[in-house]
């Protein structure tokens, strides 16, 4: 796996874990927490949403779904 792909997957996992820990977060909170652009966060959230791991109950807010996830290190 390319280093850039590994870095992206690690970041997406971290985003998921952050949302799981906080409950509901805004896109801006994620930008501030991870220090990356809102566009990059949006791409990451799109990957998570496509895989039914997060959902947006209202514009700009994100929460995890009830889908079971096994998290490996």
UniProtKB/TrEMBL annotation:
The keyword Cell membrane does not apply. Residues 8-63 form the HTH deoR-type domain. GO terms for molecular function: DNA-binding transcription factor activity. Keywords: Transcription, Transcription regulation. The lineage of its organism: Bacteria, Bacillati, Bacillota, Bacilli, Bacillales. The keyword Hydrolase does not apply. This is DeoR family transcriptional regulator. Pfam families: HTH_DeoR. It comes from Fredinandcohnia quinoae.
């Amino acid at each position: 796996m390319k280093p850039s792909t590994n870095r992206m997957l690690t970041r997406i996992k971290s985003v998921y874990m952050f949302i799981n820990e906080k409950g509901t977060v805004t896109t801006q909170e994620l930008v501030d927490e991870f220090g990356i652009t809102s566009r990059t966060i949006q791409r990451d959230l799109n990957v998570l949403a496509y895989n039914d791991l997060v959902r947006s109950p209202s514009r700009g807010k994100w929460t995890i779904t009830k889908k079971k996830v096994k998290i490996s290190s």
